[in-house]
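Worked example

This section walks through a single chain of length 621. The input is the sequence exactly as stored; nothing has been trimmed or padded.
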Amino acid sequence: MRIGLKSRLFTWLVILILFATMAQLLGQSMASASVPKPQWADLQLQLIQETGTFIEKLQSFQKPDGSLFSETSIWSADDEIEYFYYFPAYIYASGDQVAYDFYSDEVMYYWHRIVNGDANNGYFASPTYDTEHTLEALMGLANLAYIDPTDTEITSRLEDLMEHVGNWDSSIVDWYDWDTHHMLSTRLGTSDIFTGCPEGIDSPWNLRFVPMAIAAALDDYATGNNGRYETWMSDYLNGWIDAKARMNSSHGYDVIPSSVNPATGEPGFCGEWHEGVAGSWSDGGFPSERSFRQAFIGYWMISQDETYLNAAKEMVIELMRLGDGTCPASVFDGSSWIVDCEDDHIARLAVQAAAHDNQVDQAFDSLINEWFNSGRINEPIVDLWKYRNSGDISIVSNHLSSALSDIRNKINRLQGLDNNSEFQDYLRNNCSGKNMGDKLISCFSIEKQATALAFSAFMGFRPNEADLPEMEVKYHDSDLSLGLPNGVAGLVLSGDEDSKKFLLYNDSGQTQTIKVQAEYIARGITSLRINGANSGSFNPQYASITIEPQNLLDVEIFLSSVTPQCSGDLTGDGKIDQQDVSRMVNAVLMGNPDNLCIDLNGDSKENILDLQELINRTLGK
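Given that input, the structure is written out below as tokens.
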């Protein structure tokens, strides 16, 4: 019987080889046909181009020392750097070197002002300034290190500063108490620190050091040698978890306090637990929400330790409990909590916690849905939540369209300005704010553009301050330079711990190759599916995708926990036919599977039996 089986299979092979040869002679192409450019792709490509034009014009006003403004004091220079918080989302999408250099020169301008003033060992020597102001600027080092970890000028400056958070430089005064697990002050210096009231406290502002430590430790995470940064971050965050637990025990509120006594770890110092430096729970609470989110969500993203994600969810749940049943509370007036339906910091904390939770938590999701569907909040993060849950591409297109109109308006407002002096005069006369940095933000922020690009290209929210980049995929050109190739648009459709699904459209007029990574901290890729069929090439870090001009590809990257079922559509044209048979013959007989998914009968082998299964599928059996 075995001889008979071999004979029948041999006959099938002869027929199939002839069949495949005839198909090739007839010139049947395996390439996908050209398709019209989707609206989202058209809008995204225009937005990237116009944002680049705007940034290039703005960069032309930059002075030789890297600054935009001449009279800015070191105290207010942080606001000038704050303007650039939204640049990373655009740079990740475009790979624009001009934008990166513009941002880098501004940050180094601030750095050199420190060095030329009262500085020692990478930071201000005297505790003159507080971390609310200094880190607002120096977080730019972290953002730039995230974008280009090979930029040694940036990374060395970052490490010069960050070696102090764990007292690793014995030549300077200690900044951290390893016993109480808290920073010793908000006014730090390398030769001295400010102790006592009002700023000798640990404040949520200091949690900004955590995403900066993540950026400083990127090489450690790439090699698995997390070292001292890992130890310090977990220790410090555990100190804030303990402070949250003490708050719950002593005051009945499961939130982090606005201030902690660094000598004891007890909530409240120099006043009540809800008081402290700027931005306490008494006047809005936003550092308690924003800095907490950046630190806890960022650390969870690199560690995957549920302790820190759960802490984030617990604080959201508590603020919702303290609210009015639909919206959260965000202000404590000394006796009661005040509701704020428009608090985008809590909204973003909630969305990130839900999006990163690998377990379905319907109760938590329902809290968010009830708030977001109430009509009482109108923030971009609401649209990201709705897009993640519905897949409605029109949500993304609306943001892209609005951002495109906005950036064109900004370009028009810059057109008549020829030099830095005219630019500064324009800001003084037309823009609101307490200083030039604030005026720049009020008139020329690219927040809308960053939001639209982050939504569409990455299914993430635009980085703010020093967020670890939130992206389902990360794009590189064929030479591994950052960003989508010119003329190629990308739209993430879905993403979870198992797979990432996205569209690519090539409007460049030439064949392009894109190398795609799963998430910012690379997840291991196990297979690649293009237009429903396993195709292309990949290694654990990158999927390599080649796309012809005017083509649209539907791509899915599978991660380590998922093995996709083989469909038999090896060419990715949406059907199973003789072209697939021809490709299977080549794979089985020539030993050239080319990463194709050809184990059709599910026996974990790729052999002639899979060819017989494909024949049956081709014939509809």
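What to look for: Residues 2-36+471-618 form one domain.
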